[in-house]
Write a structure and sequence with these properties.
seven-stranded antiparallel β-sheet; 7 strands; 228 residues
Length: 228
């Protein structure tokens, strides 16, 4: 692991053709959603297209919701936001999502990534009692080791093959609505944002190879539904 300051991250973002402005509503970047629980994927190039898509495909999306409602994850197993399962089910689903991401990294030959809040500005949500949360404490130990303040946008360079456990901690933090990091793959021009509905959002320029890598990786996972 190595620390990287945000000024250097920003240079890499610009070099790859992505800036933090890409996350605005009008940004013309493809956005992919992969959900464990109610699992589906959507691709949009702007906010208007997203709204049109939901209007035209509302019945299909509702079908997916109903099919997977027993695995409705919203902020983790203790959140109280519609959770309907036990801790073991949450970690079972999370393991599927972690394996999918690791397989995607292998297929795309992604060796190193940067963990950083990017446009989220700081590492954690602003709950009053967040300091008592177990995954918060684990993520904070990593940040302290790297001498990174939780309010900073400095990042951690992670070797995917040797240090995947670091990604696991922050992905779980995001899935449980505690941390708010992104995973930036500078050489491939991809930003992956783990979300508290246990899904991934992929941001990148139009790229057929990335499309293909995501789809081919997902083919081995029967628990992931895809809607384009």
């Amino acid at each position: 692991m190595d620390k990287i300051v945000f000024a250097d991250i920003d240079k890499l973002l610009k070099k790859s053709g992505i800036t933090t402005d890409s996350f605005n509503a009008d940004a013309r970047y493809e956005r992919h959603w992969w959900n464990s629980g109610y699992k589906y994927a959507c691709r949009f190039t702007n906010e208007s297209e997203r709204n049109d898509y939901y209007e035209k495909n509302s019945e299909r999306i509702e079908e997916i919701y109903e099919e997977h409602m027993k695995y409705w994850w919203d902020g983790g197993y203790e959140s109280g936001h519609g959770y309907n399962g036990v801790r073991e089910e949450f970690y079972h689903d999370q393991q599927i999502m972690l394996e999918f991401l690791f397989d995607f990294f292998k297929k795309s030959n992604i060796q190193k990534v940067i963990v950083s809040p990017l446009h989220k500005v700081n590492y954690f949500e602003n709950y009053i009692d967040i300091v008592h949360n177990d995954i918060f404490k684990e993520c904070m130990r990593i940040l302290k080791t790297m001498k990174i303040r939780k309010e900073a946008r400095s990042g951690i360079i992670v070797d995917v093959n040797k240090e995947f456990v670091i990604l696991k901690r922050f992905i779980e933090g995001n899935f449980r609505f505690i941390s708010r990091v992104c995973i930036f793959c500078p050489e491939n021009g991809i930003i992956i944002e783990p979300h508290h509905h246990m899904n991934y959002m992929f941001y990148y320029n139009n790229d057929e190879k990335i499309d293909s890598d995501i789809k081919k990786t997902a083919e081995k996972y029967s628990d992931i539904d895809i809607v384009f």
